[in-house]
Design goal:
The longest helix has 25 residues, at about 310-335. A hairpin with a 4-residue loop joins strand 9 (about 160-165) and strand 10. Residues about 1-10 have low confidence and may be disordered. The termini are close together. The chain is globular, with a radius of gyration of 24 Å. It is built from twelve helices and 16 strands. The chain folds into three domains: about 15-75, Orthogonal Bundle (Arc Repressor Mutant, subunit A); about 85-195 and about 385-400, ATPase, nucleotide binding domain (Nucleotidyltransferase, domain 5, 2-Layer Sandwich); about 205-380, Nucleotidyltransferase, domain 5 (2-Layer Sandwich). Helix 2 (about 30-40) packs across helix 3 and helix 9 (about 295-305) packs across helix 10. The chain is of the alpha/beta class.
Length: about 400
């Protein structure tokens, strides 16, 4: 992840961030406890606390003590000291979350993107809705620490979207374009930040080896090994969706044919279902979807139809499961995780079925399956995963002293 420019540039900025990181990790602390944890002198810590107080980044409240005398003053992060805007851009909607300095979401909005995926339209909608959200919540612009954006695709450290197949973008200098319109620091991240949202929701995951498999508008994965996100030499680690599984298959937005994403991502499944219905396939889905039904709603309809024993819906569900199982088995052999997380609107309605399918195929497709103890779980954060994850990334980078 890129390092944010946080507004702690005066003398002692590193120590200020160190104290904020401790407060984030441990919760309220007394000054004496901060001295113990940082090994800084009491006068130094007093100076740091004074600067953080001036910036409105901390709160101070009386603590409890069984001893006589003055009660200790407990210092904590001030949730209203700063705010973060977390943004997800996908082919159907722009999701915006407003987060306080505890990284808790306080408000969220969804802006339909429609058929116009142009960079100009996305920037226009962001400019209007970011300002509108802050105005509605009465948050002054100077209280915004930064904006974190995430989208499916390859993003350079300079904030250039090299390729986003779901959006159809190539070589878009997105950070620079946004800086021309918005006054706050702009930070771009790949969609692997979604795993940070899961870890925040369930902190015990931080110590696991995780393969996070997401099937939504695209197909991708995030890998956590020994507590570290794996990025790769060009920040493209986890592009499982662009593994070619059917060389003569449908074209993918990346320029190849037969990628996993071109087969089982939401838009691809929706396209297949529409084509099959147009070619005369008998299914109850014909009554519940049309050309304007978005992919996520088509997947929900597919799930309902499968539950009602619609033969075609069950066949499509099992076809997705087979491709998912092959990809998951490959990932397990490559990365040796102890947790497999299934995420995305294509996976969520079918979780019990997909989990069972993967487990049943372990013996035939996974190397030395009897020695593995792999827990398969569904993602907890749902459609908020990316906005929550990108906000966590901004905050994490902001208080990092590395």
């Amino acid at each position: 992840m890129e390092k944010n420019e946080f507004n702690l540039k005066n003398v002692g900025w590193r120590n200020e961030k160190l104290v904020l990181a401790l407060l984030k990790q441990h919760g309220p602390l007394s000054q004496s406890r901060i001295c113990q944890l940082t090994r800084l002198g009491s006068s130094t810590v007093s100076t740091i606390v004074s600067r953080l107080r001036e910036k409105d980044l901390i709160t101070e409240t009386p603590g409890q003590s069984g001893k006589r005398g003055a009660k200790p003053i407990l210092i904590d992060i001030n949730p209203t000291g700063q705010y973060i805007l977390g943004v997800e851009i996908n082919p159907t909607v722009i999701r915006i979350g407003l987060f306080n300095f505890h990284c808790d979401m306080t408000e969220q909005i969804s802006v339909p993107l429609g058929s116009d995926h142009s960079v100009e339209n996305v920037i226009r909608l962001l400019e209007i809705n970011l300002h509108g959200l802050l105005s509605k919540e009465n948050i002054p612009p100077e209280k915004v620490m930064g904006i974190g954006l995430t989208l499916s695709g390859s993003i350079t450290p300079a904030g250039v979207v090299k390729l986003s197949s779901p959006l159809g973008w190539k070589q878009v200098p997105l950070r620079q374009r946004l800086k021309e319109k918005l006054q706050w620091p702009i930070h771009l991240y790949s969609t692997r930040v979604r795993l940070l949202a899961e870890i925040r929701a369930k902190p015990s995951l931080a110590s696991k080896n995780i393969f996070y498999f997401n099937i939504a508008d695209g197909v991708g994965s995030t890998i956590l090994i020994d507590g570290h996100l794996i990025h790769g030499a060009t920040n493209r680690c986890g592009e499982l969706g662009h593994t070619i599984v059917q060389p003569d298959g449908p074209p993918c937005g990346c320029g190849h044919n037969g990628c996993l994403e071109a087969l089982i991502a939401g838009p691809a499944v929706a396209k297949k279902i529409r084509a099959d219905i147009a070619n005369g396939t008998q299914t109850t889905l014909a009554e519940s979807i049309n050309d304007k039904t978005p992919p996520d709603e088509i997947i929900e309809a597919l799930s309902r139809a499968a539950d009602l024993n619609d033969a075609y819906a069950k066949d499509v569900r099992d076809w997705i499961a087979e491709h998912l199982c092959r990809a998951a088995s490959l990932a397990i052999n490559l990365f040796d995780p102890d947790v497999l997380i299934l995420a995305g609107y294509v996976s969520q309605p079918f979780l019990p079925c997909f989990m069972d399918h993967i487990r049943r195929q372990f013996a035939d497709r996974v190397y030395d399956p009897t020695s593995r103890q792999i827990k398969i779980i569904g993602a907890r954060c749902g459609r908020e995963a990316l906005t929550r994850g990108v906000a966590a990334a901004v905050f994490q980078d902001a208080i990092s002293t590395a």
